[in-house]
Prior knowledge:
The protein is built from 13 helices and nine strands. By secondary structure, it is α/β, with parallel strands linked by helices.
Amino acid sequence: MKGKDFLSISDMADEDITSFMAGAVKLKAQGLPALCDGKTLAILFEKPSLRTRVSFEVAMRQLGGEAIYISPAEVGLGERESVPDVARVLSRYVDIITARTFSHTTVEVLADYASVPVINALSDREHPCQALADFLTIYEKKSKLAGLTLAFIGDGNNIAYSLLLAAALAGMNFHIASPAGYNLKKEMLEVARGYAARSSSKILLTEEPGRAVSGADIVYTDVWASMGQEAESEVRARAFAGYQVDKKLLSQAKADAIFMHDLPAHRGEEVTDDVIDGPQSVVFDQAENRMHAQKALLAKLLGG
Length: 304
């Protein structure tokens, strides 16, 4: 890791992602090693969550530690109490903080003022913990990362950006198909292209889902309107109307391609039931691997 915190997949730039995944697989198989015995995790959320909260709580307890959930009403980050003050107070009580925030700036300020490690459990810019779980799942299914092709169909959002960075670092090709106006931002691409140049990863941006999926090893999609974008739902539904992952689109990928979705899914919108429930779908393996990837991350950041 670059420092004490995990705010972005870029923080793994000095790490061999494949080695991290191999270690996570071993930890997953070991059962319940008490690598965080006596340690306490604070789970600080501005947004509600199913997978993120439960996976972090269970992960920490399986490692022998404790987890404390702090709801938005209990803290009021930046309103009831300033973010720097919250960071400094929690640093006196707990050993590590994971934060799910609306703004990426909030998690950066937390990390700046906290003396303990801070994990980005989701922000408007990235969802690095989801990407770790996704790449752990890919590694388990494909036994490698480098040389594979991941096709992302949908919005150039925080999920897409974290996947792009992880792919570029791991030597995996990344294709993304988005309608005009919804692709990855230029500054995001510049960072990823720097990593891709070193790993020989190839990045493809297109407005054609079939072109992105052609020959892909992994086909990935996400909701068209993320949390906080509900007011844009109708506009986005029209823009993404041709970007649904159905059997016809999935058939253009490799025969052994896997289908991924970070959940929750809007069935009948970005994906059809016969794909998400089909034999190529690994979405519930992804969901489980949130816990296992985060166990490896917690153990690493706490020195376990």
